[in-house]
Amino acid sequence: MAKDTSVAEHGSFTAKDYTDPPPAPLFDAKELGSWSFYRALIAEFIATLLFLYITVLTVIGYKKQIDNADPCGGVGILGIAWAFGGMIFVLVYCTAGISGGHINPAVTFGLFLARKVSLVRAVMYMVAQCLGAICGVGLVKALQSAYYVRYGGGANKLNDGYSTGVGLGAEIVGTFVLVYTVFSATDPKRSARDSHIPVLAPLPIGFAVFMVHLATIPITGTGINPARSLGAAVILNEKEAWDDQWIFWVGPFIGAAIAAFYHQFILRAAAVKALGSFRSQHHV
């Protein structure tokens, strides 16, 4: 049974075999004077740019291939899901050691709520991610100008036959799956307990993105990443791309908040531990 402490054969207690990092400060002005901070911003910008470039190009290419009404043409929804999940796997692997490999404002928001990053870093990451997304989609338009607008520019929208509530729910649940996976894959307790099973953290995160896309592409085209939705909407700049834009911000942020609460306060029992620590200090 996995516990923070375990009872040894003779009734003694062993120390924890993992260490939780201290909570990030709410506001850390020192970060603004650190080159590693700006290096992380550049990494988030470039990673999000590459993510949008590859994935939106895949979506447009697929729509072009099936334009002849051949249902078997192109990579299909499965291929699009692989493009999104595969790129997240690759980019998280490449940038995790520099910026943490967020590549998504919802992930950054969830980690901020869990005190994994400071407010300054969270806000600046989101800005870098959104700018990277806009530039990535802009690059797609520059290289595919003949097909970009014709095939919708890879923009997210609520598809016909689905209500606003269904679309919002799909974004909430989809983002919950993603952010919950991020917390689980990077949990120091899991790393210690499963040290005999080498787990590459970007792999389950990429698979989470892949699986969510399979489920929600027919509903919203799958957002679960506000920067991805914003970048496509800004470059396409048509009414249909903006009508449901709020869904792709509210849904992911709610899903990320629920995932952060669930992992930190239910699975990791942060509230119980804090209360126990307070009681111990009170009785000293």
Automatic annotation (TrEMBL):
The keyword Transport applies. SUPFAM superfamilies: Aquaporin-like (SSF81338). It is found in: Membrane. Pfam families: MIP (PF00230). The keyword Nucleotide-binding does not apply. InterPro entries: Aquaporin-like (IPR023271), Aquaporin_transptr (IPR034294), MIP (IPR000425), MIP_CS (IPR022357). Coiled coil: none annotated. The chain crosses the membrane at residues 40-62, 74-98, 119-142, 162-185, 197-219, 246-267. Gene3D superfamilies: Glycerol uptake facilitator protein (1.20.1080.10). This is Aquaporin. It comes from Acer yangbiense. The lineage of its organism: Eukaryota, Viridiplantae, Streptophyta, Embryophyta, Tracheophyta.
